[in-house]
From TrEMBL:
Organism: Noviherbaspirillum humi
Domain called Ketoreductase: residue spans: 7-178
Taxonomic superkingdom: Bacteria
Alphabetized Gene3D superfamilies for the sequence: NAD(P)-binding Rossmann-like Domain
Pfam families: adh_short_C2
Database matches in CDD domains: SDR_c (cd05233)
Family: Belongs to the short-chain dehydrogenases/reductases (SDR) family.
Protein name: Meso-butanediol dehydrogenase / (S,S)-butanediol dehydrogenase / diacetyl reductase
Length: 254
């Protein structure tokens, strides 16, 4: 498929996990892709496997507005337009509110929430020109609570409602704003969990499909939401969770 031929896509957090899979999916469908993230080496590794003429590495800390502005300028200088923004960058420290530090709280809000705000604010003027779209990577943690992830829950809950508000404000501009809400997904962020068989068994028991997601399965849905196929989908926070939300997180009956 070439659904994104001649389109330009920014993916934040593109150096690994869902961001890497998303960048690869858009490139495979013909898009020019801007790979943004804090670690240039990771971005360069991904870029080397993409067509050189359609890949731009832009080391960016989305928690800093000046760096987001620089990323946008670099995108326009190289490709001349923007069609899709995927806000994927995120961090998720664990701990009870009395154990995790104030600095942890500030970092989560800076990356997971401020970063989405900064990127959307910079992208929307360009997306108005192309009648483009924004896909925010929220989480099922933005739809409900988790144990020992209150900071992450708060940030992703804000992203979930921010998505709805932007969809209402900018649908008239031809900009669609949606979010995906993955549950457990195999990424560097969760690799320690995947090394604990007992913990994984408990997670898998709660998911009706019996397993977590692979990054490519989330990327597939992101590509759909950005495509013409989803042209009347706006303001949706779509769970990608193997049925976890539908089951209310309850394990199967014995």
């Amino acid at each position: 498929m070439d659904r994104f031929r001649d389109k330009v896509v920014i993916v934040t957090g593109a150096g690994s996990g869902i961001g890497e899979a998303t960048a690869r999916r858009f490139a495979a469908e013909g898009a020019s892709v801007v790979l943004a993230g804090r670690t240039a080496d990771k971005l360069e590794r991904v870029a080397r496997s993409l067509p050189a003429e359609r890949a731009l590495v832009c080391a960016t800390d989305v928690a800093r507005l000046d760096q987001v502005e620089r990323m946008m300028q670099a995108t326009l200088q190289r490709f001349g337009r923007l069609d899709v923004l995927v806000n994927n960058a995120g961090v998720a420290p664990e701990g009870y509110i009395t154990d995790a530090s104030v600095d942890d709280w500030k970092e989560v809000m800076a990356v997971d929430l401020d970063g989405v705000f900064y990127c959307c604010r910079c992208a929307i003027p360009e997306l108005k020109k192309t009648r483009g779209s924004i896909i925010n990577v929220s989480s099922v943690s933005g739809l409900g609570g988790d144990w020992r992830l209150s900071f992450y829950n708060a940030a992703k809950g804000a992203v979930t409602n921010f998505t709805r508000a932007l969809a209402m404000d900018h649908g008239i501009d031809g900009i669609r704003v949606n979010a995906v809400c993955p549950s457990l997904t195999r990424t560097p962020l969760t690799e320690d969990m995947y090394r604990e068989p007992e913990l994984m068994a408990k997670f898998n028991e709660r998911i009706p499909m019996g397993r977590g997601a692979e990054p490519e399965e989330v990327a597939d849905v992101i590509a759909f939401l950005a495509s013409h196929d989803a042209r009347f989908v706006n303001g949706v926070n779509l769970p990608i969770d193997g049925g976890l939300t539908a089951s209310n997180g309850q394990p199967p009956m014995s």
